[in-house]
Amino acid sequence: MTKAKIHNAIAILLSLVCIFVVTGVSGRGVSTAYAESGSIRERYEQTDVMSNLEGSIIGGKEFDIKDYPHSETGKPQVISLVEFCYSYYADKQSDYGLYVYIYNPQDRKIDGDTERNKIQLSYGDKAGYTKYTLKCLNYSKDAGFEGRFYKFKVMLSAAEREDILKIVKSDERVYRVSGIELSVKSEVTEYACAQEYKYKGFAKGYGSELSESDTLSCTADGLEKHLSLDVHSTFWRPKGTHDDGYTRDTLHSVYFSVPNEIIEEYGEMTGVHATWLNAYTNPILVTGNKAVYDALQKHLGRYVHGGTREEMNANTDLIYALVATRAAEGLRNDVVTADTLHTTRMSA
Asked: CA-CA distance, 331 to 49, in Å (whole number)?
């Protein structure tokens, strides 16, 4: 079992609340006004991932960047799940949040502006896991370590947040992470985690009103059972699903098997959780004609204006066009020469 004292930055932020004091003299005497520069949670989210990690204890030892080298074959790992400013007082729960720190050994750029980054999480005695969106806050920018570490916020709706605060026990808050999904160049990959985090105590100012110190601590340990499945992809493409003549649907899915020993130990599988996404691809042209392929290859990524027959003949060396309408279904391969086409329309 490893013990992690997570992020001294939490206590530092709590003790360094920015309060601007303005005094003025009037006929009634001295008046004082206070203004805070953002909430504790907002300021914590703005802090740099490296400043948060420095001085923290991870895996039973103080964080040392040398323990996290670049690796061409390494996989992203969750190195810390941070419970921020938990309180059993309802009027102090507005700053509560969950944050994830990830070691990214290949230094690959994780897509930040996407809702496809996820974490699969359970808490307290809640049965089953739920996927939550991860919002990228920042990443390491030190020379030689660019992108080595990422800081994410677990995005919780008001109802999800309320459910967590209702279910976790104030004397020991338990969070279990089974995996994360990260998007790189729009391709999502799932990485197993299998970690359990147990938080005790409170950040200063969020526990007992009589407490004079920060008592927050965390222990992290592996889950008792973790199962990696050999998942395969498959698809089904129905014919003639749209009236426009050029749009086609493809349903992608996966299949896998559960080892018999797992069924024997835990019993029959009662449910599978999956996420379904709808997406439209960019226009695609598929051809089995080598001459057409060679002619079109050099135009990839370029906008080619078809215009009238005369304009096309005069302004482009593209000698093919795709007719993508119901009226064109009688044309062989839906490909004709440009001098027989008045206008063009490129579609999937």
From this structure: 59
Q: Are 28 and 45 in contact (CB under 8 A)?
A: no
Q: Compute the distance between CA of residue 68 and CA of residue 104 in angstroms, rounded to an integer.
A: 9
Please state, in angstroms and rounded to a whole number, the distance separating the CA atoms of residues 133 and 155: 5
Structure tokens at 169: 């026990």
| 229, two tokens | 């499945």
Question: Cα separations (Å) of 201 from 79, 114, 153, 335, 339?
Answer: 21, 34, 22, 71, 78
Residue 341 confidence (pLDDT): 35
DSSP string over 61-107? EE--GGGS---SS---EEEEEEEES--SSGGGGGG-EEEEEEE-TT-
Element holding 49 (H helix, E strand): helix 49-53
Token pair recorded at residue 256: 């896998």
Please write the tens of the pLDDT for every residue from 151-195.
999 999 999 999 999 999 999 999 999 999 999 999 999 998 889
- Report the relative pairing of strands 19-26 and 29-36 from DSSP bridges: antiparallel
Residue 138 has a pLDDT of 97
Q: Are 97 and 137 in contact (CB under 8 A)?
A: no
Q: What is the mean pLDDT of residues 25-30?
A: 27
> Which residues are registered as beta bridge partners of 232?
255
Instruction: Return the exposure string of 12-45: e unless at least 16 CB atoms fall within 10 Å of the residue's CB, then b.
Output: ebbeeeeeeeeeeeeeeeeeeeeeeeeebbebbb
Q: CB neighbours of 318 closer than 8 A, spacing ≥ 6?
A: 295, 296, 299, 304, 312, 338
Q: What is the pLDDT of residue 77?
A: 94
Q: What pTM did the predictor assign?
A: 0.65
